[in-house]
Design goal:
Layout: H1 12-21, E1 25-29, H2 33-46, E2 50-55, H3 56-62, H4 64-73, E3 82-89, H5 92-101, E4 105-108, H6 115-129, E5 135-140, E6 145-146, E7 152-153, H7 161-171, E8 175-178, H8 198-207, E9 213-215, H9 223-231, H10 244-251, E10 255-260, H11 262-278, H12 285-308
Parallel strand pairs: 1-2, 1-10, 2-3, 3-4, 4-5, 5-8, 8-9, 9-10
Antiparallel strand pairs: 6-7
Helix pairs in contact: 2-12, 5-6, 7-8, 9-11, 11-12
Length: 314
């Protein structure tokens, strides 16, 4: 189906606005009705554009028909600036399938390939997606860490600023995900002293002025959720995210899309664990899942206001 039939928009115009007004569009990953409902409610409350991000594994978990049924049920309108995005598409086929389903934005992740192979794969995806006015994101550099079957790597490599112009012009992508020290999962830094490579980001921004840059693996890992999980039977220790101040700085340097997944996972898990721990006789899913939803909703509100600076941008 055409994404416009769902009231969705691609990311071109919202990224252009974000670059002009110095804010980032939040890309929140979701996995079911509860997480989707919390994210969309927060975005609407804050009057923020939002990218609803779905990984291949989440798509498989939800099934394509159920996913698009939920999107249809949101009654989205174009003025809300909501995009449905395939996160870390692993192949031309997965990207083609997403476009046919009604996704308005896709990411092809060829970051583990050689430069030339990444260019070749990305260009094939772009040539197909642009026929349907679908935006395409690609990645240069590799992030370490694990979040699902696709996004897992034991090694990382920074984006080389000398490669970015060649890559963008050769592929005609609409946005570029870069590696400057973020990572997937809840363990993003070994110590509090680690900082993002703003020198690399600065060089990339100079090479690609006014071009949309993207940060993956950029969750802040709110410690209140980590504490709640551990106090209620969990075992997540030494989890560190990207400090809010560093993310705010990145937003001022052409980063206009920040991916958030781990924060939502932690928020949801903390809510469910606390609810079940405090009320051990409860077996009503609406109640304990509702606690997880509330946590995600509140966290999205905070990150839209304090990290993305995207509140009241529509």
């Amino acid at each position: 189906m055409d994404y416009k039939d769902f009231g969705l928009v691609n990311t071109k115009n919202i990224f252009s606005d974000a670059l002009t007004k110095n804010y980032a569009v939040p890309a929140f990953n979701f996995y079911n009705m509860e997480t989707l409902s919390a994210i969309i409610s927060a975005a609407r409350e804050m009057k923020s554009p939002v990218i609803l991000a779905v990984s291949e594994s989440a798509l498989k978990y939800m099934s394509s028909n159920l996913l698009m049924g939920m999107i249809w049920g949101l009654n989205i309108t174009p003025k809300e600036k909501i995009s449905l995005h395939l996160d870390h598409g692993s192949s031309l086929k997965s990207c083609v399938d997403a476009v046919k389903l009604g996704f308005s934005s896709i990411m092809i992740d060829g970051s583990k390939l050689s430069f030339n192979e990444n260019v070749e794969l990305t260009k094939r995806v772009v040539d197909f997606a642009h026929k349907f006015d679908v935006s395409v994101e690609a990645e240069l550099g590799t992030l370490s860490g694990i979040e699902d079957e696709i996004t897992q790597s034991t090694e990382s490599s920074y984006t080389n600023p000398k490669d970015v112009v060649n890559f963008v012009t050769s592929t005609n992508i609409d946005s570029l995900a870069i590696a400057i020290g973020t990572s997937h999962g809840a363990y993003k830094r070994k110590s509090e002293k680690e900082e993002l490579r703003f020198d690399i980001l600065d060089q990339i921004a100079k090479e690609l002025p006014n071009f949309p840059l993207v940060l993956h693996g950029a969750s802040s890992i709110p410690q209140n959720f980590v504490t709640t999980i551990n106090e209620n039977g969990g075992n997540i220790y030494n989890a560190r995210g990207i400090p809010i101040q560093q993310l705010q700085k990145a937003v001022k340097m052409n980063v206009c899309k920040i991916n958030v997944d781990s924060d939502s996972r932690l928020a949801f898990t903390a809510g469910v664990r606390k609810s079940l721990f405090e009320k051990t006789d409860n077996f009503n899913p609406r109640e304990f899942l509702g606690s997880g939803m509330k946590n995600i909703y509140n966290n999205c509100l905070e990150e839209i206001k304090n990290i993305m600076n995207s509140a009241n941008k529509i």
